[in-house]
Amino acid sequence: VQLDCMFIDEGFGSLDAEVLDSAVAMLGSLSGGRRQIGIISHVARLDECIPKKIRVASGNGGSRIWLDVDE
Predict the structure, then answer these.
(1) Residues 6 or more apart from 5 whose CB is under 8 A from it?
(2) Could you tell me which residues are beta bridge partners of residue 7?
(3) How far apart are alpha carbons 27 and 6 in whole angstroms?
(4) Residues 6+ apart with CB under 8 A from 49
(5) Following DSSP, what letter does each residue of the chain receive, concatenated?
(6) Which candidate in 41, 42, 68, 70 could, as Cys together with 53 as Cys, close a disulfide (CB 3.0–4.6 Å)?
(7) Predicted pLDDT of residue 34
(8) Cβ distance 42 to 67 under 8 Å?
(9) How far apart, in whole angstroms, are the C-alpha atoms of residue 8 and residue 22?
(10) Residue 4 predicted with pLDDT over 90
């Protein structure tokens, strides 16, 4: 089975910094530029090390979505 896209919902909040860095490195190697990996998380450390993000924020008028790319 070949997976071209994978989404992970949370699960990173209980990891210590070393294990989190290792998990992010592994996910980066899995993507290899050809696969897409989506992570749904509120962990600030992930925000620092993932260069492309789709952000969603809720507000009084509904939700807002935007692309955030680190340069």
Answers:
(1) 35, 36, 37, 38
(2) 38
(3) 10
(4) 21, 24
(5) ---SEEEEES--TTS-HHHHHHHHHHHHHHHTTTSEEEEE---HHHHHH-SEEEEEEEETTEEEEEEEE--
(6) 68
(7) 78
(8) no
(9) 16
(10) no
Residue 19 tokens read as 């294990």
Q: Amino acid letter at 44?
A: A
pLDDT in tens, 15-58: 999 999 999 898 888 877 678 888 998 888 888 888 889 999 99
Q: Confirm if 56 and 63 have CB atoms less than 8 A apart.
A: yes
Quote the pTM value. Answer: 0.70
